[in-house]
């Protein structure tokens, strides 16, 4: 690929004071910029004006399939944003005005089925469709209830066997130990099923914008399964959307403690620190997410002149 003289590789720009400059240049960069994959395939292409993103930015998968289009004005999100799956199916579509989401935000799955639609005004959610009520809310909870009933039935059967077994004393002792072991196994399995059901219930509430109920469900899941990294991550997202960034940070850090390679948790942890005006911690966590393979964070760091 040959670029005109007006273009520059993003990796050859440096960030100073929120603007990008050519190396050894005191004037904020204006013009086209690009980034390539290691194999030379087009990765990113867009325009800077006075050191800030401005106009259309386009992203591609290394296969050549378009990955996304974003519009900016004076460094802020402004206009239509579209994202595609690697199979070419549209993934997200939303609009921004002066850095805030405005109008409809729509999400499709990889098969083209619309999964959700939310309407925003001045950056605030004002309406969410009921296109999708998470099936797990309907399916997983009854499964967990069924498992609990089955557990109770087995417990009753084992208790009866232990109580009415008319064998020798040694056989009674062995039967009791076997029953205890089986009960412990069933308890552990039942608690894990219930924890997953509460977690999925929390996800369903979260997707409907009911963050308080989502947080309550996540907490119940954690009571049953304290080593559930995904639930701590989800709990952090619930607090994040309530603007409780300190609590969100605590939850993300616990998720990372349980799952050290949790790229999404590092990404959102960086976002929480951004909202607390702690840019150094924001960038350090973004870099960790990038090192763990988060492509979106890698793209953001490249655009803004950071290595990882």
Report on the architecture of this protein:
The two termini are 26 Å apart. The longest helix is centred in the middle third of the chain and has 39 residues, at 169-207. The chain contains 8 helices and 15 strands. Mean pLDDT is 82; it is low at 1-5 and 129-138. It folds into 3 domains: 7-128, Outer Surface Protein A, domain 3 (Alpha-Beta Complex); 134-209; 227-292, Serine Threonine Protein Phosphatase 5, Tetratricopeptide repeat (Alpha Horseshoe). It is α+β, with helices and mostly antiparallel strands and 308 residues long. Helix 3 runs antiparallel to helix 4 and helix 4 (229-241) runs antiparallel to helix 5. The chain has helices spanning 135-164, 169-207, 211-224, 229-241, 245-258, 263-275, 279-291, 295-303; strands at 7-9, 13-16, 19-22, 31-36, 42-49, 52-53, 55-60, 66-73, 76-77, 79-84, 90-97, 100-101, 103-108, 114-121, 124-128. The strands form 2 sheets. Strands 1, 4, 5, 6, 7, 8, 9, 10, 11, 12, 13, 14 and 15 form a 13-stranded mixed beta sheet that branches. A hairpin with a 5-residue loop joins strand 4 (31-36) and strand 5 (42-49). It is elongated.
Brief overview:
By secondary structure, this protein is of the alpha+beta class.
Q: Which helices and strands, and how do they pair?
A:
Layout: E1 7-9, E2 13-16, E3 19-22, E4 31-36, E5 42-49, E6 52-53, E7 55-60, E8 66-73, E9 76-77, E10 79-84, E11 90-97, E12 100-101, E13 103-108, E14 114-121, E15 124-128, H1 135-164, H2 169-207, H3 211-224, H4 229-241, H5 245-258, H6 263-275, H7 279-291, H8 295-303
Parallel strand pairs: 1-4
Antiparallel strand pairs: 2-3, 4-5, 5-6, 5-7, 7-8, 8-9, 8-10, 10-11, 11-12, 11-13, 13-14, 14-15
Helix pairs in contact: 1-2, 2-3, 3-4, 4-5, 4-6, 5-6, 6-7, 7-8
